[in-house]
Design brief:
heterodimer; A: mainly alpha; globular; B: flat
Chain lengths: 187, 226
């Protein structure tokens, strides 16, 4: 039987996604430690947060396989980032919306593990071009200069973000499958 | 957000968030202007006057450090004084814009959203996320305690980290989520549209909030015109 693309989110789905967002926010608290390096190393913030975001987002999506789950995770994370860095809020919302559309068009939702993996895989790497665009728009010369100053480092960091995100998404899916097998996590 | 930084009389949360966005946007747009520094100083003083002195003082060392470091890099790269000053303005606009957020009690924002009939999904999610931070610390401590008792080994070993730390932590998170959702449903929370609910403590807008917001708007208009 074909599964519907759009399903209603229940209270238990929202609670689980909120908890995953809280855990992701807490584990991403290492970001301020490298914030000052952003003007020297391109994508350093994404490198240190990719693993946490991808692990917990993929666990969230593996349990709540409904359209809108990723957007809820991004919005809940973004709302708290709004008070610290509004740019991150907009980045999260735009990327969340884009990836929801991507999941609907390409995979018809998050019913398959492949959909979860690829959607999470794109989340962090997409924040790199968004950050570049934001810095161009607001003319942060030092930040934009980092991108072109050492092109090899930019390429290495971008590849590192993709690799770490892929590892995180893989781990998240693996953990979820183990928990589903043991009966702890129900879809 | 530390409780120590919270102001005794807090601004209306939505106006606080709006003023954050306005300060940041206008500060970044006018960073190259000569009066941007005066604009940011005026916003800082305004927040100080409105009781946000703890947060105002707390951002100073961070702002000074970031200015010295980032503006130093900008100067080293460009050797241009106006560009360096613009970099200082941008850093300051971010640092000053976060003050209302630092001094705000997050639960007031949730109450504010609930009172404004924002989607229940959003307010419930925010409430859970906010209250989960201290609980997570406890859970991590419990899992680590269990690891020590079992003599599981070092967290630095990937296999030990995965089997003995990450998996039990996620199991706990799933269990907490199940219990919490049952508890939330028992208390009558519903994701259904149009379900009636009330707010225990409503956050009201006071004339002082409007005065603050009006002053921020006037200053922002002034910095663009000048």
């Amino acid at each position: 039987m074909k599964q519907p693309i759009f399903e209603k989110l229940k209270i238990k789905d929202i609670v689980f996604l909120a908890i995953m967002a809280a855990v992701t926010l807490c584990t991403c608290a290492v970001m301020p430690l490298v914030a000052s390096l952003q003007t020297m190393v391109f994508g350093i913030a994404q490198v240190v947060t990719s693993l946490q975001i991808s692990v917990f987002f993929s666990i969230g999506l593996m349990k709540v396989r409904k359209v809108g789950s990723l957007l809820i995770l991004s919005v809940l994370m973004g709302l708290f980032e709004l008070m610290m860095a509004p740019a991150m809020f907009f980045s999260n919302i735009i990327i969340g919306l884009f990836l929801e559309l991507f999941a609907i068009i390409v995979f018809r939702g998050y019913h398959s593990d492949r959909a979860v993996f690829f959607t999470v895989l794109l989340f962090n790497p997409l924040s790199l071009p968004f950050n570049v665009l934001y810095n161009y728009l607001f003319g942060r010369e030092a930040m934009v200069a980092v991108l072109t100053a050492t092109p090899w480092l930019t390429v290495v960091m971008t590849l590192a973000v993709i690799a770490i995100t892929a590892l995180g998404a893989f781990l998240g899916i693996k953990i979820s499958k183990e928990l589903q097998k043991s009966g702890v996590m129900k879809k | 957000m530390s409780e120590k930084l919270q102001a005794r009389r807090q601004l209306y949360p939505l106006l606080g968030i709006l003023s954050t966005v306005i300060t940041m946007v206008f500060g970044l747009i006018t960073a190259k202007s000569d009066v941007c520094l005066a604009y940011l100083a005026a916003i800082w003083l305004l927040l100080l006057l409105f009781g946000y002195w703890r947060a105002c003082l707390a951002v100073l060392p961070a702002a000074a450090g970031m200015c010295a470091f980032l503006a130093g890099i900008t100067y080293a790269v460009s050797r241009d004084v106006p560009s360096t000053l613009a970099a200082v303005n941008r850093i300051l606009s971010v640092c000053i814009a976060v003050i209302p957020g630092l001094g705000m009690q997050p639960v007031n924002l949730v109450r504010n959203f609930s009172a404004l009939k924002m989607p229940r999904m959003l307010t419930l999610g925010m409430m859970i996320t906010l209250n989960f931070f201290p609980l997570l610390g406890l859970e991590v401590a419990r899992v680590r305690e269990a690891m020590k008792t079992r003599g599981a080994g070092s967290l630095l070993q990937p296999r030990v980290f995965y089997r003995a730390f990450l998996l039990p932590l996620v199991v706990r998170l799933v269990n907490i989520s199940d219990t919490l959702s049952l508890s939330v449903e028992t208390r009558g929370f519903s994701a259904e549209k149009g379900a009636a609910y009330s707010v225990y403590k409503t956050v009201r807008m006071h004339p002082a909030d409007l005065v603050y917001f009006g002053a921020v708007l006037l200053l922002s208009i002034w910095v663009v015109i000048v």
